[in-house]
């Protein structure tokens, strides 16, 4: 793909260039490269750099399981005739693997050459078996005998035992054993149990990889045999689900079948230690059916996503100086507050994790469950956590006789097992559980409480958010939420739940934009309105904050707005296929990315450069799947103080004095050390007033 685009400056409606989009997969890898740059940053606390190493590894796993797997599937079915880069699909896959491999080697080198020595200097050691002393090995032998050996199942490969199924992301030992009686050599596989700690504690701050302990005791698994060699390997498989809802009578059962199949989807990557011998590697490649460009050779240990265990040593081992300083979110609603009286007076805008989730959203649901005047609670659940207090509150409400309706998205990627479990638990307690609209994922974040007031009036209280109802991730993800008793919002949310639980084509909303019916159209209409304002000499501006920007109609509309002269600022955490700063195409567009302690997750859409810009927050990213194949919702923010707070946040994010990454027209992300950490600023300035004092 050409890095330069020549665009003639001409009147409106000039044709847009063919190469106006950046490569999606490459942009995703560049996002993970920015995560790696945080791990490389010596200004960050050491254990947080360790955590970013783990996040990089987890992110790359998902990239292969979903994005690379999707490319291979479309190529195999003939749906992908030519990649976005213009290459043949097979060449594109090889190119993407090449880019990923460079990052993997950089990740591995950072771990071995920089992070491990720095950990040692702080008294924290990740060692291999050969580094253990005699007393330490004695302790490990006892641990192996009592806790590890009973859960191991060695599987030999011979005419009576076919090559075993290797589940995706499992860590395995490829073992070659020889029979000393007849000299026959046999290959065997030993799976490293995922239920046990990835790094085994030898002493307080000294750890050894679990596979090293197993490898040192292979003689106890293959008694009477000679251990010739052993090597660690790991397979990544296609883990995307394919459920045809149009021909499925029972979605739950079909999904459970797909989940069983997913563990053994087609391979998309194999990771091996760089010490592996050619004969063992050739056997694995042949049996698994992977290509040369899908082989990743790295120094052990493999699977550094397990480094979260090491990163957690800060708070658990009194090593706080090696981690971010503890942060206590602001308490928004006190236990003795009358939350419904508060909402009858004013809306409450929430900004997590700076505002406590447990004392706001969770407390809102818990109060509703306990309040005898509440008649009904309706809520969407996309991802939640184990032992969820939100789920417990909904169950309490149902058992108290309230009508409880829960829209559980059981197709939420990688949370399907958990969501099926929650759905059954809620159904058993008497909640009405539905799975949304046929053919669409329910991704909107909504809660509706119907309460009978003292005067007999029925009043609706709502929460509309940008993030999931998950107390655990709410401490790490940056998100907005609006608590409101606004009648128009209540009417809209009621209509939307009718659509989700019943049989309705309702698409006319007053304070909401809802996908797939009105959200894209609403955004495009507002972009066109800013073009008209600018042409008429009125103040015009567009600012957006999103996780991903890949939707072509929206990008083309932003290009048209830029060609008309509208200033546009885009804050994109991850994938961005828009090219900013191209003469004649996107000269007025700036794209920024911000990564840090918290995962930037909120979505904000602002239109207007005057005194009262229009602002929306909600669940939708700018991707085709969000706008066409999901139920998403944005809510209009009307409170003057709330809009001022969001505007100030955007001002700071786009300031040259803030630490961000800038996207160039040729697709490179350049880190800009402006000197100001936006997230740290927000931590230090709590607590702003969430209750708005004027509309």
UniProtKB/TrEMBL annotation:
This is Polyphosphate kinase. Gene3D superfamilies: Endonuclease Chain A (3.30.870.10), Polyphosphate kinase middle domain (3.30.1840.10), Polyphosphate kinase N-terminal domain (1.20.58.310). Residues 21-127 form the Polyphosphate kinase N-terminal domain. Pfam families: PP_kinase (PF02503), PP_kinase_C (PF13090), PP_kinase_C_1 (PF17941), PP_kinase_N (PF13089). PANTHER family: POLYPHOSPHATE KINASE. The gene is ppk. One of its GO terms (cellular component) is polyphosphate kinase complex. Catalyzes the reversible transfer of the terminal phosphate of ATP to form a long-chain polyphosphate (polyP).
